[in-house]
Write a sequence for this structure.
């Protein structure tokens, strides 16, 4: 391959890599955000359940100690 052909080939390869890399990055960003939101939602629900059950347990213990 001539030097120019090599440059063109490298340019195409780099563009492909950049394109597919960007696409993958965007997919990760999107799915990552969705996953993060799901975690936030389910995490908050779990936290509230823990808070509720924890408070109930704490109140029962206090009542038992009295």
């Amino acid at each position: 391959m001539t030097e120019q052909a090599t440059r063109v080939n490298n340019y195409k390869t780099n563009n492909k890599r950049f394109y597919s890399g960007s696409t993958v990055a965007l997919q990760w960003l999107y799915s990552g955000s969705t996953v993060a939101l799901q975690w936030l939602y389910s995490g908050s629900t779990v936290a509230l359940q823990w808070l509720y059950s924890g408070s109930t347990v704490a109140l029962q213990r206090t009542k038992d100690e009295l």
